[in-house]
Amino acid sequence: MAQLTFELPDGTTREVDVTQVLNAGYAGRNQEDVAAHVAELAELGVPAPSVTPALYPVAPYLAQQTGHVAAQHGRTSGEAEWALIVADGGELLLTAACDHTDRDLEVHGVAWSKNAGPDVLGRRAWRLADVEDRLDDLTLRAWVTRDGEVSEIQHGTLAELLAPAYWVEALRARDALTPGTVLLSGTIPMLPGVDQFADAWRVALGDPVTGDTITLSYDVRPMPAPIG
Questions:
Q1: Is the pLDDT of residue 40 over 70?
Q2: Whole-number Å distance between alpha carbons of 219 and 200
Q3: Given a cut of 80, is residue 37 above it in pLDDT?
Q4: Do the domain assignments include residue 145?
């Protein structure tokens, strides 16, 4: 079981023993655009989901607060997301997240690809109740580093994704809104012309009202070749 620690703006901390991790997919707020995206991916060989939005269970140990991600080959990449965390007493927290995914495995099964890399989470969080009046204005950005050059690869707002309230109700309907649950939101589009297969990723969840930003960053470390 993974244990995560989050620092809140008032300096207090929350320790969360992770019991389940769920990755949302095809979770754009405009589901017509999502349907078009599903069709595009199908042409690339990625299996279409039976329903949208989709929800993929991920092994709890893959929820990590780390600065390093090991990769078996050169076709893995992250995705900027927000994460909803259910802390003790049902307190809901919001933080930045990056779903590191195996793109080669994705064509065989999205759920498999989600379980081939970690969900990296920020070390700071906000109480959902403290930002829920302006959630759509929160910004979500990502940068990649390749050969020492930093490029922005994602830039949007939470208005592009299904809201946390949607997922709170979805979890409640499944009796899954329980302490230790971590849910990742799904991602926003990547900017064209930027290579996602990078040496490092950085994600920022920003609040334009307060100027506060929650960040995470990690480098991608190639694993040695198999022996045998």
A1: no
A2: 4
A3: no
A4: yes
Between strands 68-71 and 213-222, the pairing is: parallel
Indicate the pTM of the whole model: 0.95
CA 26 to each of CA 33, 52, 59: distance values in angstroms, whole numbers, following the listed order: 9, 6, 20
Distance CA 141, CA 131 (A): 18
- Is there a cis peptide before residue 192, judged by omega within 30 degrees of 0? no
Cα dihedral sign for 5, 25, 100, 149?
negative
Q: What percent of the chain has pLDDT over 70?
A: 99
In a domain, 228, yes or no: no
In a domain, 51, yes or no: yes
Full residue range of the structural domain in which residue 144 is found: 3-222
- Provide the domain count of the chain: 1
| Bridge partners of residue 121, in order along the sequence | 97
Distance CA 212, CA 217 (A): 17
pLDDT confidence of 176, banded at 50, 70, 90?
Answer: very high
Adjacent-strand bridge partners of 7: 13, 124
- Of 2, 26, 166, 139, give the one whose Cα is nearest residue 84: 166
Tell me how far apart the alpha carbons of residues 84 and 201 are, in angstroms, rounded to a whole number: 20
| Residue closest to 136 by CA, chosen among 85, 82, 64, 183 | 82
Does pLDDT of 98 surpass 70? yes
Q: Is residue 227 part of a domain?
A: no
- CATH number at 45 reads 3.90.850.10
Are 110 and 49 in contact by the 8 Å Cβ rule? The answer is yes
- Give 167's strand partners: none
Of 147, 167, 162, 157, give the one whose Cα is nearest residue 204: 157
